[in-house]
Amino acid sequence: MSSSFRSILAITASALLAIAATGCAPQGTDPDSESLVGADETVETNDDAITGSIAAGTQLVSTTNVNLRSGPSTSKSILHVVPEGSAVTVESSTPSNGFYKVKHNGTVGWSYGQYYKIKDTSPSTPSTPSGSGPRADAISRAKSSVGFSYYWGHGRFLDTGPTASNKGSCSGSCPSCTHSGSYGGDCSGLAAKVWQVPSTNTSLSDDEHPYSTVDFNKDNSKWSTVSRANVQQADAMVYNSNGAGHIFIYDKGDGWGSMYAYECKGCAAGCVAGYRTAGSAYHAIRNAGW
Questions:
Q1: What is the C-alpha to C-alpha distance for residues 47 and 49, in angstroms, rounded to an integer?
Q2: What mean pLDDT value characterizes the chain?
Q3: DSSP string computed for 204-231
Q4: Are 23 and 188 in contact (CB under 8 A)?
Q5: Beta strand extents in the chain (DSSP E only)
Q6: Residues 130-155: what's their mean pLDDT?
Q7: What are the residues whose beta carbons fall under 8 Å from the beta carbon of 22, sequence distance 6 or more?
Q8: Which value, to the nearest 10 degrees, does the dihedral of the CA atoms of residues 277, 282, 287, 290 take?
Q9: Which residues make Cβ contacts (< 8 Å) with residue 82, sequence separation at least 6?
Q10: What are the residues whose beta carbons fall under 8 Å from the beta carbon of 102, sequence distance 6 or more?
Q11: Once rounded to an integer, what is the mean pLDDT over residues 82-88?
């Protein structure tokens, strides 16, 4: 075997080991993630529904699950589903065909105005969080990640959430991507933070990446497989195949259909929340402490 051929084999092996070590699939290889289930567009509109021109920058609140589309028409593709009660920001003051150009979780698209109302910005007494216990706490940690950048091989967030100055940015195609900033994470970095595994991984602001999807894909003393039909809030969905994989945190919905999830999705998308589906390659896992 020539020395040059041995060098090529060594480089290839190193690249495969790097992918297996971090374990989040390169962007775009998440199986069936494109199989988005759209929201019902036959529900009744609300009395406070918006109409006419609205100043750019105005915040709206969805009154039901609403499709965010690539253009101002029901014939346009669905980018994702804006969950009921979510805030969006108006990007353009002039509607088209009753659709408004809005931004939700970093994604800009078009949504039908009849399913939104203007957000009430008057001061109010903070509400008591619904639910308590480790699952509710885990979802609170997951929510804190939304808006941070995708950071391959890392896991570091803030419980106060991101700002324009600290959310970071990712460019390129991971694992050969470039990141700026000190915060963000990849899919398995987020999952470990949300689940606080191992037991020392309790601080969101410490940069820890103890496991990859190679680890999460196998049952051990810290987590185990559960039926997707019985998945519960703060469980996770994971797959790994030959070192490439993905994991996301389940919040609610149909474990075999449309479900609301938190995930660090990829370099372009960053860390997001929204409705998605998961192909048969995924299985559900549960924190052993729950």
A1: 6
A2: 85
A3: TTS------HHHHTS--SSEEEE-GGG-
A4: yes
A5: 59-62, 66-69, 78-82, 87-90, 99-104, 107-112, 116-118, 155-156, 169-173, 176-180, 184-185, 223-226, 236-241, 244-253, 259-266, 270-276, 283-287
A6: 92
A7: 152, 153, 175, 186, 188, 209, 212
A8: 60
A9: 62, 65, 66, 67, 68, 88, 104, 111, 274
A10: 60, 68, 88, 89, 90, 91, 108, 109, 110, 111
A11: 82
User: What residues are paired with 68 via a beta bridge?
Assistant: 80
Six-digit token string for 264: 């660090």
Q: What is the pLDDT of residues 10-21, one digit of tens each?
A: 444 444 444 445
- What average pLDDT does this structure show over 204-226? 97
pLDDT tens-place string over residues 219-236 = 999 999 999 999 999 999
The alpha carbon of 255 is separated from its chain's Cα centroid by a whole number of angstroms, namely 16
CA 80 to chain centroid, in Å, comes to: 11
Q: Which residue has the higher pLDDT, 115 or 39?
A: 115
19 is written with which tokens?
């992918």
How many other CB atoms are there within 10 angstroms of residue 113's CB atom? Answer: 22
DSSP string covering 247-266: EEEEEEE-TTS-EEEEEEEE
Query: What pLDDT digit, counting tens, does each position of 93-131 carry?
Result: 899 999 999 998 788 999 998 899 888 765 544 333 456
- Domains annotated for the chain, with CATH where assigned, are 33-122 (2.30.30.40), 132-287 (3.90.1720.10)
Question: What pLDDT, on the 0 to 100 scale, is given for residue 34?
Answer: 37
pLDDT > 90? residue 191: yes
Q: Which residue has the tokens 């940069």?
A: 207
Angle between helices 134-145 and 187-195 (to 10 degrees): 150
